[in-house]
């Protein structure tokens, strides 16, 4: 239902009648007007006319709304009208007004007298209302025209639940319900199109269009970049003479850091042949990116036969995380035959991941392996998210897709504007709760109206957007691209300088020769041997010009949507438009980030589990290219002999271990830097929020309240600290409390106008009123010794909450009886017990005892003179007596200048032994956060904080899962868990505090600030929130010890604490044993003399102060001469001996760790590693690349490979041999061997060395 602010709107009208419009669509239409009036006590009427605004003198329908019955249990009235009761189909005006209190409504029962009533009898409406129009119709199905018609049907009567009609034929008929969309009054719109008055809708449309244009420009730029990625890149080691082609599709996974910059090589083995070591590279494109498909063209001398194995590896030459690679799968497609071979890997080639290997031997995938669920789901989900999710595909679009980024942007915005239009058309038109025919299932509700609106809205949005996407996806190119295989062959020949005889557009090399050979063979009657190619069936495509139709549809959808959105925005007004936009933004992002991904996820799961379609490499690339024209050289036609096996030297374990260690350091370095960076941001956000919750003005506020109500040092009986008995307490209440509790006159005697409800300082507004609450103890809560019972039988101790008195009394605390129960003295409110629930109070701890939330209450909600009179009366009636244990004064204030609440508590505690202990507490707290100019910034930080907490939670869950039980062996794990638990506690406390504050502010607003309200619960939550925040800041700051563990000094500190922990645990046990023995002794000896030892807890606190040098030696000395001796022993044992022993243990461990390198953390090496990387980044030193994997061939494959050696090396080889022979001759033959004569040299070497003149022994010695 649409809310109508009738109260405000009618005040500005000369005739205070609020008008609305509705439409009657057809004959036999039943119109239901639903009205929900906010206030039941009203004098509203309703008028309807069809040609002009209705009045008492000219109208078609009149109804005094107070006479319209309500359904049982319903708060909505319904008026059912037939079209024939009005004026048939058309537009109608309806007005709602209110009669004055003096007007006699019975005059309106006569239609003639009604015309004589003047519109001046109307007064501005005193209540708002909600309005909705529902249009029903009846029709039958005409089987001839296949349409719904209403001929021969007449609606007689209609009620809320029943429609009665006459029909002149017995046909199947049905009743339809259609909720009319929001109407547009173009006269009103064109008269109220001012930019300032409709700022929300104008800014929304302008920003949306600007975003559309900017995104379209960016998409066009990316489309041009994507176009450069099309086609197949020839491998750099392809040879011109190799004519047999394979297309290679390499699919990189979608894992984190899946991309690589390393050099990738492979060996492909088939039944007939095996390739040499080939390199996958493309100088013009950035290959092997995350979730990418790279297209290469492999040229080989002859067919390899059915492919069997793929050996693939890389050399880890990439930098950082780009040294590793996650290979999903590789597809080899025989260009000549169309056969396809798939090699599925789905594993890492990385020294630090998986099994640490950088080489894989992958067999060709069979049908079952191609249809495995894990493989299909992993790759199909990635593909569908990047291509099927329209908004995500703008940024993740596969570059081989025909559906460009510009077209996707246009489709998305057409869908967006249509969705906005549909949402505006039926905004607040459908009831939130289903009617009698609706369906309710727990929190979910569904009605026929909702179903109808959803169906119609989906049709309006789905049909145009589906047509646009379909046209863009299926529109073929105007001109087919050059075939990527032909282009790859051309590029290879250009690189080898073999383009002298080939021009663009000519046949491929040797194609003319092939045609000539084919003609000769046909002439001779011999049929040429041709490799059979499997023709692939072309997919359906639309003509190229259809994309123009798609763009036209986009412009029409966006233009029409913007026009009507502007109209609706002006009709709604700024406030309603803002509400509509808020709901629209939430639903839009919910759809993009949750609904669509879940839908794609479920669809992919079903398709992967049931359909098992394994053609993951199919796309639009083949459809938009010319067919390949390939030569069929006869060298392809016969299988040749298998090449010699190519041997390669594997990477040794030592090198692999070195690479793995270096990569481990890199990963750890980036992990540490990332952790430090993210944690610094998190801590900065949290500190900003926590310190923003504190205000220096809080101290000044509590000091002002303290000076206003405590009056320390005053000598006029207003000093609360001097309250020591009941009489002085009554004097303080009369003089000290009431003096500043209510605002007084100004210094010049003027009345404090507009300051009602303020304190006398005229700066702090009271939140409600002050209460004085008494806590009483029940009689006989302790026992009187037998020998003293003859003197007294009454004994009352501390209340301890459980002994609090909760009975109702008469004056002087006498019990009522049947005779006095209804007397005035037994009905004094201050002698009646009020429970904690009624006061919304919590238990609390004072200086002497625990006190519950209930008590006997004095409410100071009157003028000061009346309050003084009431206090005198209560004093005479003995309101404070021997059973009083505490009198609490409680109130709260709010200071608008500094946005702080002030909580005030004054307690006078009556001890059973006599006397009063005064205690007071003033607090300044901030409970409202989002009211200043930084509200948006604060909200942003709060959202970021929640996201960080979720991120850290998921990270710790992952660590728990990965590390198992060993996770809990690290002390820092407990700190991480403690921080997370504290963060979640802080979030909950913040939420509860906000709602508690809002509840009290609602009471303040409802009672105009004079009703009873209590901020104690919100203050308690704020106090707990402060404790939790302090704990998070403390532990979170200490966590930097862990984050900076690679720093040597921090590492030595951590290692020292670890080293001395065993000794410290034993020492601490001895320390606390000795300390608490002294605490017990001092408590027993000084308990009745000094306030610092009145209970055991305060004794512990005092003893710690004594260790720190803060003590009251003179007072202890006056108590007993034995106390100074024990004090000296305490100082000697704890401050001198034990503390120095503690320092000795720590220094000893520090010295040991400092000189014991084995105990130092190995993270020290990270400092040098990080510094080295920083030097490389800043250009201060060159990069230290990891040595690539060396691949060697043990055998020469063929003569051509042998000729490929360096010519200079071959030319220098004879000279080096001559030098070698001269060295042998001089060294072993004393220069007597003739190395220039080949025959002599041969005889000397193989015939005993006749030219050598030495003996045999000498000869053997030489050799």
TrEMBL record:
It is a multi-pass membrane protein. Residues 244-363 form the PLAT domain. It comes from Petrolisthes manimaculis. It comes from the Eukaryota. One of its GO terms (biological process) is detection of mechanical stimulus. It holds the Pfam family PKD_channel. Disulfide bonds join 782-795. Keywords: Glycoprotein, Membrane, Signal, Transmembrane, Transmembrane helix. Its main location: membrane. The chain crosses the membrane at residues 199-219, 409-427, 451-472, 542-568, 580-602, 672-692, 934-954, 974-992, 1024-1044, 1064-1086, 1119-1147. InterPro entries: PKD1_2_channel (IPR013122), PKD_2 (IPR003915), PLAT/LH2_dom (IPR001024), PLAT/LH2_dom_sf (IPR036392), Polycystin (IPR051223), Polycystin_dom (IPR046791). This is PLAT domain-containing protein. GO terms for molecular function: calcium channel activity; calcium ion binding. PROSITE patterns: PLAT. Belongs to the polycystin family. It is found in: Membrane.
């Amino acid at each position: 239902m649409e809310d109508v602010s009738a109260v405000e709107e009618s005040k500005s009208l000369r005739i205070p009648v609020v008008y609305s419009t509705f439409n009657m669509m057809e004959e036999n239409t039943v119109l239901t007007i639903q009205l929900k009036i906010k206030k039941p006590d009203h004098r509203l009427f309703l008028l309807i006319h069809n040609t002009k605004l209705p009045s008492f003198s000219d109208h078609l329908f009149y109804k005094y709304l107070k006479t319209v019955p309500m359904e049982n249990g319903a708060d909505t009235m319904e008026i059912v009208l037939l079209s024939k009761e009005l004026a048939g189909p058309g537009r109608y005006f309806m007005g709602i007004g209110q009669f004055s209190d003096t007007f006699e409504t019975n005059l309106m029962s006569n239609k003639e007298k009604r015309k004589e009533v003047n519109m001046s009898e109307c007064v501005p409406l005193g209540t708002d209302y909600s309005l909705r129009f529902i249009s029903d119709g009846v029709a039958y199905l005409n089987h001839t025209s296949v349409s719904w018609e209403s001929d021969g049907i007449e609606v007689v009567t209609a009620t809320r639940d029943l429609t009665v009609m006459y029909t002149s034929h017995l046909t199947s008929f049905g009743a339809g319900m259609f909720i009319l969309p929001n109407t547009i009054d173009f006269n009103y719109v064109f008269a109220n199109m001012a930019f300032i008055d409709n700022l929300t809708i104008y800014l929304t449309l302008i920003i949306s269009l600007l975003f559309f244009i900017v995104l379209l420009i960016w998409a066009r730029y990316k489309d041009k970049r994507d176009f450069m990625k099309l086609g197949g890149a020839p491998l750099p080691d392809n040879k011109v003479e190799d004519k047999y082609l394979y297309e290679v599709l390499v699919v990189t996974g979608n894992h984190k850091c899946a991309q690589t910059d390393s050099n990738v090589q492979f060996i492909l083995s088939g039944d007939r042949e095996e390739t040499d070591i080939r390199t996958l590279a493309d100088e013009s494109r950035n290959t092997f990116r995350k979730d990418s498909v790279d297209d290469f063209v492999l040229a080989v001398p002859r067919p390899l036969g059915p492919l069997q194995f793929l050996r693939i590896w890389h050399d880890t030459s990439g930098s950082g995380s780009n040294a590793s690679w996650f290979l999903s799968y590789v597809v080899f497609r025989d260009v000549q035959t169309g056969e396809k071979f798939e090699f599925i890997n789905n594993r890492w080639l990385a020294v630090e991941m998986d099994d640490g290997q950088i080489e894989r031997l992958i067999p060709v995938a069979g049908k079952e392996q191609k249809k495995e669920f894990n493989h299909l789901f992993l790759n199909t989900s990635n593909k569908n998210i990047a291509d099927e999710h329209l908004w995500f595909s703008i940024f993740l679009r596969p570059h081989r897709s025909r559906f460009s980024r510009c077209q996707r942007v246009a489709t998305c915005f057409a869908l967006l504007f249509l969705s906005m239009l549909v949402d505006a058309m039926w905004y607040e038109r459908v009831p939130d709760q289903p009617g009698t025919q609706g369906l309710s299932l727990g929190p979910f509700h569904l009605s026929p109206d909702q179903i109808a609106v959803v169906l119609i809205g989906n049709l309006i949005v789905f049909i145009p957007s589906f047509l646009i996407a379909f046209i863009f996806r299926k529109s073929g190119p105007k001109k087919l691209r050059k075939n990527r295989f032909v282009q790859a062959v051309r590029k290879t020949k250009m690189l080898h300088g073999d383009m002298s005889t080939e021009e663009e557009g000519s046949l491929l090399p040797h194609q003319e020769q092939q045609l000539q050979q084919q003609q000769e063979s046909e002439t001779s009657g011999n049929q040429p041997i041709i490799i059979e190619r499997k023709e692939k069936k072309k997919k359906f495509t639309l003509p190229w010009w259809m994309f123009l139709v798609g763009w036209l549809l986009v412009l029409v959808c966006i233009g029409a949507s913007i026009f009507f959105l502007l109209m609706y925005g002006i009709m709604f007004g700024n406030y309603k438009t803002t509400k509509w936009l808020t709901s629209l933004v939430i639903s839009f992002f919910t759809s993009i980030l949750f609904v669509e991904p879940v839908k794609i996820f479920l669809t992919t799961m079903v398709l992967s589990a049931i359909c098992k379609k394994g053609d993951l490499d199919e796309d639009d690339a083949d459809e938009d290219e010319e067919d390949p024209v390939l030569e069929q050289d006869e060298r392809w036609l016969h299988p040749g002999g298998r090449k010699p096996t190519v041997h390669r030297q594997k990477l040794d374990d030592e090198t692999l271990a070195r690479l793995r260690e270096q990569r481990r350091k890199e990963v750890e370095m980036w992990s540490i830097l990332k952790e430090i960076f993210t944690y610094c941001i998190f801590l900065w956000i949290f500190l900003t929020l926590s310190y923003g919750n504190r205000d220096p003005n809080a101290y000044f506020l509590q000091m002002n309240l303290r000076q206003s109500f405590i009056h320390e040092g005053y000598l006029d009986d207003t000093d609360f600290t001097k309250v020591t008995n009941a009489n002085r307490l009554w004097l303080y209440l009369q003089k000290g409390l009431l003096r500043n509790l209510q605002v007084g006159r100004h210094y010049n005697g003027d009345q404090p106008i507009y300051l009602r409800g303020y304190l006398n300082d005229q700066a702090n507004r009271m939140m409600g009123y002050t209460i004085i609450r008494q806590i009483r103890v029940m009689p006989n809560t302790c026992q009187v010794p037998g020998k003293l019972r003859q003197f007294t039988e009454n004994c009352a101790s501390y209340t301890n909450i459980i002994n609090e008195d909760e009975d109702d009394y008469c004056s002087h605390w006498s019990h009522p009886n049947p005779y006095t129960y209804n007397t005035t003295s037994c009905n004094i409110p201050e002698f009646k017990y009020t429970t904690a629930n009624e006061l919304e109070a919590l238990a609390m701890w004072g200086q002497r005892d625990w006190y519950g939330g209930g008590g006997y209450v004095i409410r100071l909600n009157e003028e000061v003179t009346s309050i003084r009179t009431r206090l005198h009366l209560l004093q005479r009636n003995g309101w404070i007596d021997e059973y009083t244990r505490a009198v609490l004064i409680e109130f709260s204030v709010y200071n608008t200048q500094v946005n702080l609440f002030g909580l005030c508590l004054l307690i006078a505690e009556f001890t059973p032994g006599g006397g009063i202990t005064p205690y007071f507490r003033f607090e300044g707290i901030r409970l409202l956060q989002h009211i200043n100019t930084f509200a948006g910034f604060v909200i942003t930080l709060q959202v970021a904080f929640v996201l960080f907490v979720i991120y850290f939670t998921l990270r710790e869950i992952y660590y728990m899962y990965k590390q198992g039980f060993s996770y809990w062996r690290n002390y820092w794990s407990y700190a991480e868990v403690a921080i997370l638990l504290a963060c979640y506690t802080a979030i909950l406390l913040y939420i509860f505090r906000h709602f508690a504050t809002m509840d009290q502010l609602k009471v303040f607003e409802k009672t105009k600030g004079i009703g009873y309200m209590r901020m104690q619960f919100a203050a308690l939550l704020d106090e707990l929130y402060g404790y939790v925040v302090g704990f998070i800041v403390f532990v979170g700051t200490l966590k930097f010890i862990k984050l900076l563990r690679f720093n040597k000094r921090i590492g030595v500190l951590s290692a020292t604490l670890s080293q001395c922990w065993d000794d410290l645990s034993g020492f601490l046990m001895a320390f606390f044993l000795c300390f608490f023995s002294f605490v017990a002794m001092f408590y027993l000896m000084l308990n009745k003399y000094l306030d610092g030892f009145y209970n055991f807890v305060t004794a512990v606190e005092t003893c710690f102060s004594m260790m720190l040098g803060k003590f009251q030696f003179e007072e202890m000395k006056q108590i007993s001469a034995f106390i100074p001796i024990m004090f000296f022993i305490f100082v000697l044992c704890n401050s001198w001996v034990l503390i120095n022993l503690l320092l000795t243990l720590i220094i000893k461990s520090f010295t040991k760790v400092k000189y014991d390198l084995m105990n130092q953390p190995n993270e020290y090496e990270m400092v040098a590693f990080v510094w080295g990387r920083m030097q490389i980044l800043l250009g201060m030193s060159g990069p230290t690349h990891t040595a690539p994997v060396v691949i060697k061939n043990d055998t020469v494959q063929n003569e051509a490979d042998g000729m490929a050696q360096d010519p200079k090396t071959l030319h220098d080889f004879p000279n080096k041999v001559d030098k070698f022979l001269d060295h042998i001759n001089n060294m072993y033959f004393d220069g007597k061997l003739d190395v220039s004569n080949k025959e002599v040299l041969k005889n000397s070497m193989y015939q005993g060395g006749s030219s050598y003149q030495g003996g045999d022994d000498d000869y053997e010695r030489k050799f």
